[in-house]
Amino acid sequence: MRLVVYLLPRVLAALVTLFGVSVLVFLSLRLLPGGYADILLGPFVTAEARAIIAQRYGLDQPLVLQYLRWVWAMLGGDFGISMVTQRPVIDELLRRAPVTLQLALIALGVALAVGYPLGVLSGTRAAKTRKGRDFGRVIGAMGASVPDFVLGSVLIFVFSVWSLWFRVGGYVPFSTDPVGNLRTMLLPGFTLSVFGVALILRTTRDAVLRVMTEGHITAAVARGDPPRVIIRRHILRNAAIPVVTVVATYFGFLLGGAVIVEVLFSVPGVGLYIFNGLLNRDYAIVQAGVLLAAVVFISINMLADVLYALIDPRVGATR
Amino acid sequence: MSGFSKAAGRLLRADALTLFGLITLVTLLFLGIFGPWLPLGDPSRIAAGPRLGAPSAQFLFGTDELGRDFMPRVVQGIRSTFLLSAIAVTITAVIGSLLGMAAGYLGRFADQAIARGADILFAFPALVAGLLVAAVMGPGQGSAITVISIATLPLFIRVVRSVTLGIAGRGFVTAAEVAGASTLRIMLVHLLPNVMGAVMVQLTYALSIGMIIESALSFLGLGVQPPDASLGSLLRQGSSYLTIAPWMVLSSGAVLSLAIMSVNLVGDAVRDALEPLKGRPLT
Description:
The structure holds two protein chains of two kinds.
Chain A: H1 2-30, H2 35-41, H3 47-56, H4 63-75, H5 89-126, H6 135-145, H7 148-161, H8 178-212, H9 215-223, H10 227-257, H11 259-264, H12 270-279, H13 283-311
Helix pairs in contact in A: 1-13, 2-3, 5-8, 5-10, 6-8, 7-8, 8-10, 9-10, 10-13, 12-13
Chain B: H1 2-12, H2 16-34, H3 70-106, H4 108-122, H5 126-137, H6 141-167, H7 171-178, H8 183-219, H9 231-239, H10 247-274
């Protein structure tokens, strides 16, 4: 009951958000310079051809009706046809989704494994260390400041000169060749993770600092509990709550838009597909891709809200 | 006012890292603003040196594929990266503050509508939104500014809204209402000074996000177009010659990272000064 009361307005809000996102994406394609017929048929187009296209795609009908038809088609799994390949966009997107998912999981794994412990360490030591010597701030500032495409370019340069074990491009699925897959996926995954390390480190550090000002920590210190016990029993769980939110946002961002790293490392994921769609003026791809990215993002954040309520018994308890 | 002077005091007692950020930021801003009038060389003069020449005493950052001196081009890039992001973020901060105050103060329907609007914008990953905007508006500075605004507007709305919620019920606001002040007056005269601190903190974060987005878009070829240069478009240019002339990518990448880092460090210091978090030792 507590969960339902807490989650119901959130689900409703997410649905409203989803509706708004779909309207924006729909309108943006209708606003394209030149209109859909010109894009399909090129500049030398007769009025009849334009009319035929308009009729076939329902462009002569009221916008509201067009929108409803569009949503209805998507609910039936029809996200449009790629103009270049003449294949359903959704098939191509789903085929590429596992690649992006793997990339996101590598990045998230590294970011959590490095960022969370360092954040706890930096937070619990922050009160003792002098400000300028706090390694958490240094790593946090550096990681959040080097853009992924700068880091990626430098890595590509380094590994093109000393071709150690890694490879740029030449993706193979994990199921056919696990080692070859990792050779191509670890570098982009690591590149993506650096921002996440900084993000999680900083969030964890702030959360730990905030928890440490609370009364039960003072009580534990007064009882003479050793620091290790205080950290494990009293700090870790409390500090995890804001981290869950940030991790969800980060993961949603990774799944939806690792565009630049995928382009840089030629990883055939969703981001590269949408980007190529844009370059080819294949707008059905852009439309479907952007919409799905937003849907994934909203869903992940919904999941985070559920997780949040499960971790923190206070959530929704007082009303 | 004492809160502010205390905050300023804390800011002045900055540590080495903050000082480093501050000095870097001031230097880069100076180069960016006065670059065109400094004797650095002509960024657009073709064949000023050898093609793809390595860094030397004459050409600190080497030369590009047209033999242009790369250093003044980087300075030009600093200018447009800072300028574009600053313009976008400032516009966004004004709009976001007004919307956030309206949501927090008016409540009810306005609050719901504005909060949902922020959620909708927030649901688009910045670069994916960038692809859509580039499709609609065409690549260029206009779409870069739009994408930065889309990405940072929710940050301002959310923070200003939550701060406003905390002060909307306070005595001085009620007093102003009873005295018959208009809604606009209450927002601008009574609420705005109280949300300014939070806006300043967000402004620095938004600026660094804006610089990342601008350079990322330009790197993809969707932002600043040649012959103009931003740090991102210089990286794009350099990445074609990464293996034979790495100094282009390395110099513009290093300057871009330094620029973003200096904004972040100064932002951290501003935040620590305005809302200090004190930890306690565990022994």
